[in-house]
Backbone:
């Protein structure tokens, strides 16, 4: 049973990673709008992609 | 003569039938697709046929049905003024922020409602040089745009979007704060669940036998581990509950009344005692630990709070979006004759302001140049546009319909009549007694009951077995922690208002849902609420062909009566010549090869022959009902008579009948002429009707009803209703209403007409039934739990099983509630 001394903190570390990822996703605004991205998938764009100069990724807002 | 001859089945479609492709009304001359569906125009029919041919028709319909409709009831025409506001340096400074690749700005885009809109709006970077990125948030109709101010002006973006019927508005800067609050609560919730999950993991080990020997090193380690995780769960996760509980305790202390304690108090008490007792047990190595119950409780409560905040935000942003439609700038004519765009706040008395046709007057004043017609419906309820000329007094908030005028300001800002009304509405908002829901009202009683039970348990066990006393008291406080009770109301109402929002019914406060179920008196506005709010062809007698000829001629006139006829009949493709408008009388000309005269009956009689007596009496009857009588003569012979007026909404009759069947008193209060109001009331079978009521008198009338003990629902759409909407127990603004009405109302309906009001009343009733059921369920759970705890039957394992079970039952029942279901379905086929 002593393996638990390692396994439980390990589980906790994994959970911490999860929380960190979640926190990043929230601050990135990924939960602000959960409907439009689902629709965006349905629109296949057959033209050239737009210039990706920082436009596509929403930069984290200063208020986050 | 008729060049377009649709097949009879399509032609028979009512003008209100939605176009098979775009959903707008098809009007009088629908265009059929190959399969015979009615469309509003050839363009829609061609696209629909093309989609069907490619086998994509079904997919298109599904895509269109995928997203909730956020389309505003009244399509907005692009206003040059709103676009000009986007380019003002002050706006650019205040509302845009520096990002990599240029500047970023949030804009409201009115008119987006489906996946295709997302695609079209997000094409912006391809279409306009200088736009680096465009992301549309469909439910909130918010566009985040990254652009280079050196290469593209925001007004050009607005113009590009307006080509497709989207109206762009500057968004208010405080929208970001709501997002920040919601994000921080979401992170708190995520952390709380992660902690609760890990604490449960260890708790499983303890329950499955690890705690058989509490002094074993592994058991001790497990407890310390749980304690370490519970500290952030309580300190960070439950912080909002402690903060609010403390505030309510202080308020209760200041008022010397337990009624000020709300439900956060027993919640905070339960969390504090559960965590404290467990911590003490861990440190001393004796007694039970409740870490898992406490952690799950915190996470579940945070989830309910977050859901509530999110659904509230949806309604808040919808009203925000509608507010953004009001331009905050005006056109001032400078001393040198140039017209400059300035903030409304910067206008001063005696400034000369230019108002093009279609714009709302920003100031009270006197017409200095030009003549036009004003739509005063929003301010006075008067449905008929009024002609104004140089020297006439005009009011802010009215709409200029016909041609540009210049106004010398006599009052600006809050000194205008509409400004004074709005100021009162805002004051009323602050002074209004806060509505407390039942669950919060019983918070104080709940605390007292729990404390009394705790004292009873303590004395009982002191007498039975003093050693077990602390454990049983802690068990009582943990099991009676009103988790389900605290979640029930917000959750049920959040689910209901979220569904309502999808059906186009936005509820601004939870209190409004409750009061809507208690309403016994309904006060209805006439213009724009019971009626369409604009001139429409209401009645006619005579030859249909003559009406079409008259419409063809009227297409060349700007008078509202003429426009109503054109809207109703469509325009024939026939050459129109020799047009001559006779001021105040009518218009004559040649359509095809027929000489047509349209106008006042007496004038038309003079141009042709006397009207038949039956038509004459019909005209008199229509005039009595407040309509404008018009006669048509073709080739010197009277051919038709018609009445143009503010038509009753088709669903108004059903609504009134239903309200009266439920035993509610129905009143009509309108600023329009008493005879018109009486005619409408007679038609609907309403006995209490008053016309010629000023906005202030409307408010007083509602207050007088309330003094007699009535719970009043006020339904209106105009500035003239705003004060009454605020005064009423529940104010409802109907589709296409003005800004002031939306600000003042507790709920507003974005679909046209009053039919959604029925849905709102039904839905509110079901939501409140669900809330009550959930409250009884959770109270019952707490009562059983308390009895078991007093008897000493509650162990940590029992609590750990019972608490999530009760919470899940509440969540499940809240989600399964029937409220607003029907409206929801009808919205998404």
Residues:
């Amino acid at each position: 049973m002593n393996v638990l001394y390692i396994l439980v903190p390990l589980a906790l570390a994994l959970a911490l990673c999860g929380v960190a990822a979640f926190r990043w996703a929230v601050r990135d605004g990924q939960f602000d709008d959960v409907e439009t991205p689902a629709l965006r998938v349905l629109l296949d764009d057959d033209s050239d992609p737009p210039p990706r100069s920082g436009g596509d990724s929403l930069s984290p807002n200063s208020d986050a | 003569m008729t060049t377009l001859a649709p097949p009879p089945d399509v032609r028979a479609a009512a003008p209100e039938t939605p176009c098979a492709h775009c959903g707008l009304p098809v009007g009088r001359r629908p265009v059929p697709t190959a399969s015979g569906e009615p469309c509003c125009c050839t363009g829609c029919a061609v696209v629909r046929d093309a989609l069907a041919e490619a086998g994509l028709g079904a997919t298109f319909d599904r895509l269109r049905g995928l997203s909730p409709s956020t389309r505003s009831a009244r399509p907005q025409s692009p206003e040059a003024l709103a676009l000009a506001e986007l380019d003002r340096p002050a706006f650019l400074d205040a509302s845009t922020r520096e990002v990599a690749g240029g500047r970023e700005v949030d804009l409201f885009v009115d008119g987006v409602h489906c996946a295709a809109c997302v695609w079209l709006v997000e094409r912006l970077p391809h279409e306009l040089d200088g736009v680096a990125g465009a992301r549309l948030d469909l439910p909130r109709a918010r566009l985040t745009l990254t652009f280079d101010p050196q290469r593209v002006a925001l007004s050009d973006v607005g113009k590009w979007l307006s080509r497709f019927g989207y109206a762009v508005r500057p968004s208010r800067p405080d929208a970001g704060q709501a997002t920040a609050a919601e994000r921080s609560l979401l992170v708190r919730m995520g952390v709380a669940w992660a902690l609760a999950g890990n604490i449960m993991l260890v708790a499983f080990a303890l329950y499955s036998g690890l705690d058989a020997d509490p002094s074993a090193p592994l058991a001790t380690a497990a407890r310390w581990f749980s304690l370490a995780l519970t500290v952030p769960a309580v300190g960070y996760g439950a912080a909002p509950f402690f903060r609010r509980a403390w505030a309510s305790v202080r308020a209760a202390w200041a008022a010397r009344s337990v009624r000020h304690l709300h439900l956060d108090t027993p919640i905070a008490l339960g969390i504090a005692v559960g965590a404290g007792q467990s911590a003490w047990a861990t440190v001393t190595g004796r007694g039970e630990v409740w870490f898992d119950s406490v952690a799950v409780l915190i996470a579940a409560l945070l989830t309910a709070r977050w859901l509530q905040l999110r659904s509230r935000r949806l309604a808040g942003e919808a009203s925000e979006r509608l507010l953004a439609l009001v331009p905050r700038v005006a056109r001032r004519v400078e001393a040198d004759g140039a017209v400059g765009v300035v903030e409304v706040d910067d206008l001063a008395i005696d400034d000369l302001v230019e108002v093009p046709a279609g714009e709302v007057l920003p100031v009270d004043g006197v017409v200095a140049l030009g003549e036009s017609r004003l739509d005063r419906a929003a301010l006075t309820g008067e449905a008929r546009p009024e002609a104004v000329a140089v020297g006439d007094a005009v009011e802010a908030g009215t709409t200029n319909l016909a041609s540009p005028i210049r106004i010398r300001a006599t009052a600006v800002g809050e000194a205008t009549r509409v400004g004074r009304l709005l100021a009162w509405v805002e004051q009323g908002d602050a002074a209004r007694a806060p509505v407390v829901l039942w669950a919060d009202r019983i918070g104080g009683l709940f605390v007292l009951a729990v404390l009394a039970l705790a004292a009873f348990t303590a004395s009982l066990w002191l007498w039975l077995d003093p050693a077990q006393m602390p454990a049983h008291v802690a068990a009582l406080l943990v099991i009676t922690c009103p988790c389900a009770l605290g979640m029930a109301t917000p959750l049920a109402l959040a689910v209901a208002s979220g569904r309502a929002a999808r059906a186009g019914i936005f509820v601004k406060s939870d209190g409004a849902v409750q009061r809507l179920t208690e309403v016994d008196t309904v006060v209805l506005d006439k213009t724009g609420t019971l009626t369409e709010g604009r001139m429409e062809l209401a009645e006619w007698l005579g030859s249909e062909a003559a009406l079409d000829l008259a419409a063809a001629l009227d297409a060349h006139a700007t008078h509202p009566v003429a426009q109503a006829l054109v809207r109703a009949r469509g325009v024939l493709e026939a050459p129109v010549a020799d047009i001559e408008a006779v001021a105040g009388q009518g218009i004559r000309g040649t359509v095809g090869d027929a000489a047509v005269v349209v106008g006042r009956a007496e004038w038309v009689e003079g141009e042709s022959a006397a009207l038949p007596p039956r038509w004459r009496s019909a005209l008199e009857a229509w005039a009595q009902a407040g309509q404008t009588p018009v006669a048509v003569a073709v080739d010197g012979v009277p051919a038709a008579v018609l009445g143009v007026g503010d038509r009753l909404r088709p669903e108004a009759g059903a609504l009134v009948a239903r309200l009266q069947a439920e035993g509610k008193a129905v009143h009509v209060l309108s600023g329009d002429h008493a005879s018109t109001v009486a005619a409408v009331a007679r038609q609907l079978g309403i006995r209490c009707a008053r016309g010629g009521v000023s906005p202030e008198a409307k408010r007083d009338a509602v207050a007088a009803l309330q003094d007699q003990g009535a719970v009043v629902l006020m339904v209106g759409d105009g500035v003239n209703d705003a004060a009454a909407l605020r005064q009423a127990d529940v104010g409802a603004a109907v589709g296409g209403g003005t800004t002031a009405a939306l600000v003042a109302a507790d709920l507003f309906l974005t679909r046209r007409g009053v039919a959604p009001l029925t849905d709102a009343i039904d839905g509110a009733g079901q939501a409140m039934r669900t809330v009550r059921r959930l409250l009884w369920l959770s109270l019952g759970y707490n009562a059983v739990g308390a009895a078991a705890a007093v008897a000493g039957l509650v162990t940590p394992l029992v609590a750990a099983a019972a608490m999530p079970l009760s919470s899940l039952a509440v969540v499940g029942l809240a989600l399964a509630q029937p409220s607003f279901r029907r409206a929801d379905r009808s919205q998404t086929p």
User: Anything to note?
Assistant: Chain A touches chain B at residues 1-2, 4-5, 8, 11-12, 15-16, 18-19, 22-23, 26-27, 29, 31-33, 35-36, 39-40, 42-43, 45, 47-48, 50-51, 53-56, 58-59, 61-64 (CB under 8 Å). DSSP finds two helices and no strands in chain A.
